[in-house]
Amino acid sequence: MPQITVDHSASLDDRLDRAGLAGAVHQACVDEVAARIPACKTRFRRVEETVVGDGSADEAVVHVEIALLAGRTEEARTALTEAVLALLPAHIKEPGGVHLSVEVRNLEPAYRSAVPA
User: What keywords are annotated for this sequence in UniProt (predicted)?
Assistant: First the structure.
């Protein structure tokens, strides 16, 4: 059920291994919060412009947001955050200087999902 969104600077288009990153994040969700691979959904959003600090340098950003159904402990969500943050550099060519962040949050109770036949 994890809904995963990866926002990334446009300058990373040719440096970000999207398929590899999605697979690694999905596996981290299985390992850390007992998700199932078929339930994991990742979408990538290219961000045309990012500004870091005073904007004087053209700096790249990758931010991963993972939304889960409520019920996981804070410790499990924190472990998932740390695991995903640790695996990010392996999926970016020349990751030095790229600003990385991960947020794991609970979905609202009204969240619903379906796959029509």
Answer: Isomerase
**Full-model pTM:** 0.94
3-106: CATH, from 3.90.550.10, 3.90.79.10, 3.30.429.10, 3.30.2130.10:
3.30.429.10
> What's the token pair of residue 53?
């600090």
φ, ψ of residue 63 in degrees (nearest 5): -125, 125
Q: What are phi and psi of 38, to 5 degrees?
A: -60, -20
Give the bridge partners for 101, in sequence order: 63
Give the H/E segment covering residue 68.
strand 61-68
For residue range 90-99, list pLDDT tens digits in order. 999 999 999 9
- Rg of the chain in Å (alpha carbons): 15
| Domain locations in the chain as residue ranges | 3-106
